[in-house]
Design brief:
globular; 2 domains; alpha+beta; 2 helices; six-stranded antiparallel sheet
Amino acid sequence: MTDQSEEDGPVEFIWELEDGRRANCVQVIEQEFPNQRFSAGRIYDLPPEDIYLRIDKDGNTNIHLLRKDEAASFAWCLNGAIWSLLTSQVVDEKPDEYNGAPTGTVER
């Protein structure tokens, strides 16, 4: 993998695949945490994949090459998992009067 970054410009890199193809990538978003970084962007000249998700964690890099529909499905699945987690926390943490259940019971 070749990283190229400009001070005020986009991060561009070339990902060389095991089959010899090259994915020319341009990063459009990133989120950093203490031990990992998520980034995503566009892929040029590698149909049918046109989006990548890059995960750098504890010194390891994983890049997933995705079609638009696959990327949307991935986001939808994560959104569902987060929604489920947050709604279960609301039910578990709020008094009965706030979660709509009769006093003394919690419906799931």
